[in-house]
Design brief:
Blueprint: H1 6-34, H2 43-55, H3 59-78, H4 83-104, H5 120-140, H6 148-158, H7 163-182, H8 185-210, E1 211-218, H9 222-233, E2 237-244, E3 249-259, H10 263-273, E4 278-285
Helix pairs in contact: 1-4, 1-5, 2-3, 2-7, 3-4, 3-6, 5-8, 6-7, 7-8, 9-10
Length: about 300
């Protein structure tokens, strides 16, 4: 029987801690800004919000029931793919939605308009941004909130439809359904604005956490530059053999992967050694291996 190491246990514990923090931020965005101003968006939380606005049935219980139903199908069809972390996220998100609404709501249980009357758009911006940040933290910790992710995965198994496109279709259907229930295009427009902001912030958080820089350095002093980069920045350097097509001469090209905050230091030491060096710097997303992110797959 495989026994996880201490490092693996600490890594898992850290993931669960950050998933909880991300879910807290996400639920606060709903409890303090989106629900009081009756704004919805995609996903099962969006469906739950629509049910709450039309019937008064608590958001957290709709979310829980829908996701448990979807989880049962997912385990049966896909196997225990979303099992532990998704299950943890579903239970934790259900609890946090309930708890934070209790904290935010007044004694009468009515959600307060924390920004005042007629501040729907500002509530939309703030709430959506908090939801995006929260989801970004969850996804960076290899977590998932289930919901439309599960629907997309099930459809993807039987149909040639990508996960991203299926999630988008689900979200569009959920938001558009607001009109047929409330006969109010305002809710639909705010729903799409919220969805766009959440997606933008989510992408920014996820990509920022994985963004590094790549250097291609062409210099006659390549050996000195490589030595200093290795010793002073503690980054590996790869030397590639090339041919300058104009000069028809052999050249050596240094390839360096580094974090964003090391780019200025690398430029300075290149300039100190060879001010005439030809340098190309580009941003790269997702550098995995020793000294960078660990490979995260579900």
């Amino acid at each position: 029987m495989y026994k996880p190491t201490k490092v693996e246990l600490m890594r898992e514990g850290r993931d669960y801690l950050f998933i909880t923090i991300g879910l807290f931020i996400y639920c606060m965005g709903w409890a303090a800004f989106l629900i009081p101003y009756e704004i919805t968006t995609g996903g099962t939380t969006g469906i739950s919000a629509i049910i709450y606005y039309s019937t008064g049935f608590p958001v957290q219980w709709s979310y829980f029931i829908i996701n448990i139903f979807l989880m049962a199908f997912a385990i049966k069809i896909l196997g225990p793919r979303f099992s532990i972390k998704t299950g943890f996220a579903i239970f934790m998100l259900t609890f946090l939605l309930w708890f934070l609404q209790k904290v935010v709501n007044g004694a009468d249980g009515v959600p307060p308009l924390v920004l005042g009357e007629n501040q729907d758009f500002m509530a939309c911006l703030i709430g959506a941004a908090m939801c995006g940040v929260g989801l970004g933290v969850v996804f960076n910790s290899n977590g998932s909130t289930g919901g439309t992710d599960i629907i997309a995965a099930i459809v993807n198994k039987y149909k040639d439809v990508t996960l991203g496109r299926m999630i988008m279709i689900c979200d569009v259907v959920i938001i558009t359904s607001c009109y047929f229930i409330f006969q109010d295009w305002r809710r639909v427009i705010f729903g799409f604005v919220t969805l766009f902001i959440i997606g933008f912030v989510l992408d920014y958080i996820v990509m920022s956490a994985r963004r590094s820089v790549q250097f291609l350095i062409f210099s006659k002093e390549y050996d000195k530059i490589a030595d200093r980069i290795t010793k002073e920045t503690h980054r590996g350097v790869t030397v590639l053999d090339g041919t300058g097509w104009y000069s028809k001469k052999d050249v050596q090209v240094l390839v360096v992967m580094a974090s964003k905050n090391q780019s200025v230091e690398i430029f300075r030491l290149i300039k100190d050694i060879d001010p005439n060096a030809f340098v190309s710097q580009s941003f790269v997303i997702g550098v995995y291996g020793e000294g960078f992110d660990r490979i995260k797959v579900k």
